[in-house]
Amino acid sequence: MSDHKTMTLTLIVWRQKNATVPGKFETYTAKNITSHHSFLEMLDCVNEDLIAAGKEPIVFDHDCREGICGMCSQVINGAPHGGQDRTTVCQLHMRKFKDGDTIYIEPWRARAFPIIKDLIVDRAALDTIIQAGGYTSCHTGGVPDGNAILIPKPIAEEATDAAECIGCGACVAGCPNGAAMLFTSAKVSQLALLPQGRAEAATRVKNMTAAMSQCGFGNCTNHYECMAACPKGINVKFIARMNREFIKAQFA
Amino acid sequence: MQFISSSIGRKILMAVTGQAMVLFAIIHLLGNSSIFGWLNGGINAYAEHLHSMPLPIIIGFRLVLLAMVCVHIWFGIQLTLENRGGRPSDYAVKFTQKASFASENMIWTGTLLGLFLLYHLAHFTFQVISPETAALKNLVPLHDAMVPNVLGMVVAGFKNILVTLIYSGAMVALFLHLSHGIQSFFQTMGWSCDKSQPLLVKFGSLVALVLFLGYVTIPLTIIAGILKG
User: Fold this and answer.
1) Do A174 and A107 reside in the same domain of the chain?
2) Does A141 score more than 80 pLDDT?
3) CA dist list (Å): B4 to A169, A250, B190
4) Is residue B97 part of a domain?
């Protein structure tokens, strides 16, 4: 077993003071890393060393560290969240790397996501899209009794699949155009599939996609990199659904 | 007007105009295949049939095609420029999982096809590239009438290795452009789901491959001496 063996890795990390100052790569050595370390724990170890040496630690976003909050956001060797299927950075483990590996760590890169510091970007643009229509404003009363509103199981499941989006922005980071189509389509679909959200479906898709463009996101050209990057496996079928909703909305 | 300034609206215009041109490419190939002799009188008879249609139909058809090309080029360039701005700086390590050479180079394969289109029109429609073999000036008998010798013009053109290379190269660009473009049309129109999407990718590549093989067969059989004037 490799339990007691440790790895030494070379990290090439993007360091940037703030949105206005140009950033650059700095090289660090991660020592005494075991295969059980998560990627963020590995960075914690490097930061401990940096702090002990009186240097500025690498700043990165994280919160739940169990793959559900959508805070961690790093591009590792060119892949958002490291490229392991349906995995956030916090759930990526060092067993995926070998002793002596060189790892490039960068922030999400998109015009709509300005860098705050080092690996942290401002993802408020995703909130702006939600504020443009990612909700229902009709009165639905209190919490309804179970089965009071009948929804066929396949529809309920599909809406839940769309609702799996944790809003991390990996789709934007992976998209060569910096488009937020997968994120927006997941939100549009989740609501359009259910009776409570159906009423406002037409205005929602128009407003949310308009907000998407205004925020500086690019346009979709069907590369499907978003789907490959998504840690929740959101399918591009939701983009097709959003396109359908958009066409329908023109006649609504 | 909101539609043609919106992200998805412009994407739909790209898809519809692109798909219309794919349909044209399919019909164009079927027509051209008359050169292999399945039509009585061959490609000369086919060309004569097209040119004997009422003038408003011919002009109308050409104007519609021209409009499709213009809309496709205009929004293609506009969207590409916007999308380049969507990610202002690239990652240090390039890593793609789903994007292909074809999907990443649509603007360049499209540019090549646009330039080829100009050459192709100058060659066979306006017939200014090699005027001595121009079909309009060399009439041949067909069913008791004199018609332009399209077969002679095409065969003379493709006997030139350079011309054959230009056409074959352009068809490689066509294959790449359509192998992404056809499946993209279905996705953009929303005519796709999780089960059909991977199949549509394969279907699009297959149609692109058939068009590529169909089109290159004409110059290749001519230069190989199989198809004669």
Assistant:
1) no
2) no
3) 27, 12, 18
4) no
**pLDDT class of A140 with cuts at 50, 70, 90:** low
Model pLDDT for residues A229-243, shown as the tens digit of each residue: 999 999 999 999 999
| Shortest CA gap A25–chain B (Å) | 9
In a domain, B90, yes or no: no
pLDDT confidence tier of residue A142, bands split at 50, 70 and 90:
confident
- Pair A90, A168 in one domain: no
Interface predicted TM-score of the whole assembly (ipTM), two decimals: 0.94
Count of domains in chain B? Answer: 1
C-alpha B128/C-alpha B131 separation (Å) is 5
User: Tell me, what's the pLDDT at B133?
Assistant: 87
CATH of the domain at A79: 3.10.20.30
Determine the average pLDDT of the residues in A47-64. 97
- Kindly report the CATH number assigned to the domain that includes residue B180: 1.20.1300
Contacts of B26 (CB under 8 A, 6+ apart): B207, B211
CB atoms B91 and A218 under 8 Å: no
Whether residue A2 lies inside any domain: the answer is no
Q: Are residues A243 and A149 in the same domain?
A: yes
Q: Which domain holds residue B67?
A: 2-81+103-223
CA distance to partner chain A, nearest, from residue B47 (Å): 37
Q: Quick check: B188 and A178 CB within 8 A? A: no
- Interface size between A and B, measured as CB pairs under 8 A: 141
| A108/A190 same-domain check | no
Residue A56 inside a domain? The answer is yes
Strands B139-142 and B145-148: antiparallel
Interface of B with A (CB under 8 A): 2-3, 6-12, 79, 82-99, 103-104, 106, 180, 183-184, 186-194, 197
CB atoms within 10 A of CB A92: 24
Mean pLDDT score, A122-131: 98
**B94 domain residue, yes or no:** no
Q: Which of A205, A208, A219 to mutate to test the interface with B (most CBs of B within 10 A)?
A: A219
- Please tell me the distance from the alpha carbon of residue A70 to that of residue A67, in angstroms, as a whole number: 7
The total domain count for chain A is 2
Measure CB to CB from residue A240 to each of B98, B180, B192 and give the nearest one.
B192
Report the C-alpha gap between A75 and A44 in whole angstroms.
17
Q: CA A161, A162, A167: angle at the middle one, nearest 5?
A: 120
pLDDT band at residue A149 using 50, 70 and 90 as cut-offs: confident
pLDDT of residue A1: 47
**Cα-based torsion angle of the residue sequence A162, B96, A88, B7 in order, rounded to the nearest 10 degrees:** -40
B86/A112 touch (CB, cutoff 8 Å), yes or no: yes
Task: Please list every residue in chain A whose beta carbon sits closer than 8 Å to the beta carbon of residue B99.
Answer: 176, 223-225
Q: Based on the fold, state whether residues A215 and A242 are members of the same structural domain.
A: yes
Confidence check: pLDDT of A222 > 50: yes
pTM: 0.94
Q: What is the pLDDT of residue A170?
A: 98
Say whether both A110 and A134 belong to one domain. no
Question: What distance separates the 2 farthest-apart alpha carbons in chain B?
Answer: 70
Contact B190 A212 (CB under 8 A): no
Rg of chain A, C-alpha, whole Å: 20
Query: Which residue ranges of chain B lie beneath pLDDT 50?
Result: none
Boundaries of domain holding A225: 124-138+145-250
A83–B contact, CB cutoff 8 A: yes
Task: Tell if the CB–CB gap between A240 and B106 is shorter than 8 Å.
Answer: no
